[in-house]
Design a protein that fits this description.
The chain is mostly helical. The chain has a single domain, classed as Chondroitin AC/alginate lyase (Glycosyltransferase). About 65% of the residues lie in helices and about 5% in strands. The chain contains 13 helices and four strands. The protein has a two-stranded parallel ribbon with strand order 1-2. Strands 3-4 form a two-stranded antiparallel ribbon. The longest helix is centred in the first third of the chain and has 25 residues. The protein is globular.
Length: about 300
């Protein structure tokens, strides 16, 4: 009991009270201003696939300025999980639409979603599956807020609310899961890779949004050195040679599972790699290009190379 109390106190000090001195690039998660400028140039020239992608993005309901958030105080993934899934997607889409178009109605709609969740969300119910939500929706909400952070109305009346919810509610759960504090985690590799990869992505994203170097360093260190399946050495379990060509291939931890989950690992590895890249850390090349070698095999599987 004393050890657990001390550990919780340490976490509080680690993520809330230590001086935050690192200077992050903003916006600097999945999307940077350089990315936005490039898209604007392509749209101005009416080039595809940018133009058709933009038309698709702006046509869906999760990008509508009339979108209404459905925030609640407690999320249980098996009961009302879709509420936060859909709202997180809408918040990001709307923020992206604003950055590209400059139309403030998108920014206002994104801010309404983010602030609603920042104000109302207090708890995650359910059992272990709450960590799927804290990971996946944690990084998505942080990415949306990061894109919107330089919209003055949100910066003045919203950013602090959202950041506070993410740092005091979601980030501690990201860290708790990656520290293997749940009884079900007595075997650190009990959970499939996507569970931990989502929480690594979330801790990284919240670290950037909150200018919290400690959270960022924790996530990067875990990705490189952790003992669970979210560490890169376990997420890509083996490096093998393709028999006919000698091409090096990386086998994903969920490669023998259904392709939806196997592919999710690489979607999340892409998130982790891109968030790091935009802060000057090349995780794609880390450990002899381990992420990229995994992508090679996964793409071959998707293209039915081995079936």
């Amino acid at each position: 009991m004393h050890h657990r109390a001390a550990l919780l106190s340490f976490h509080f000090l680690l993520f809330h009270l230590l001086p935050l001195v690192y200077s992050f690039v903003h916006p600097g998660l999945l999307v940077t201003n350089t990315d936005i400028d490039r898209v604007k140039r392509k749209l101005a020239a009416q080039k595809d696939p940018w133009l058709s992608s933009w038309n698709k993005l702006t046509s869906i309901k999760y990008s509508s300025p009339s979108y209404t958030p459905r925030a609640v105080s407690s999320v249980d993934r098996s009961v009302n999980g879709p509420l936060i899934w859909h709202d997180a997607a809408a918040a990001f889409n709307l923020a992206l639409c604003w950055k590209i178009s400059g139309d403030t109605k998108y920014a206002d709609a994104s801010a309404r979603v983010l602030v609603a969740w920042g104000d109302q969300l207090k708890d995650f119910g359910g059992r272990d599956d709450k960590y799927l939500t804290t990971g996946l929706q944690g990084y998505q909400l942080a990415n949306a807020a990061e894109l919107l952070r330089d919209y003055p109305p949100f910066a003045q009346n919203g950013l602090a609310t959202v950041t506070r919810m993410l740092t005091t509610l979601i980030l501690p759960l990201n860290i708790k899961f990656l520290n293997h504090e749940e009884p079900s985690e007595h075997n650190h590799r009990h959970f499939f890779a996507n569970w931990e990869l989502g929480n690594v992505a979330s801790a990284m994203a919240i670290g950037v949004l909150a200018d919290n170097q400690t959270a960022w360093d924790y996530a990067i260190h875990y990705f490189k050195n952790g003992t669970g399946n979210g560490a890169i050495g376990n997420a890509i379990t083996d490096i093998v040679k393709e028999p006919e060509t000698g091409t090096l291939l990386g086998q994903g931890q969920e490669a023998g599972r259904d392709q939806g989950h196997a592919g999710l690992d690489f979607q999340l590895l892409g998130v982790i790699g891109q968030q790091a890249w935009n802060q000057g850390e090349d995780l794609f090349a880390y450990d002899n290009n381990r992420i990229l070698l995994g992508y090679v095999l996964q793409v071959k599987i998707f293209l039915s190379r081995f079936y």
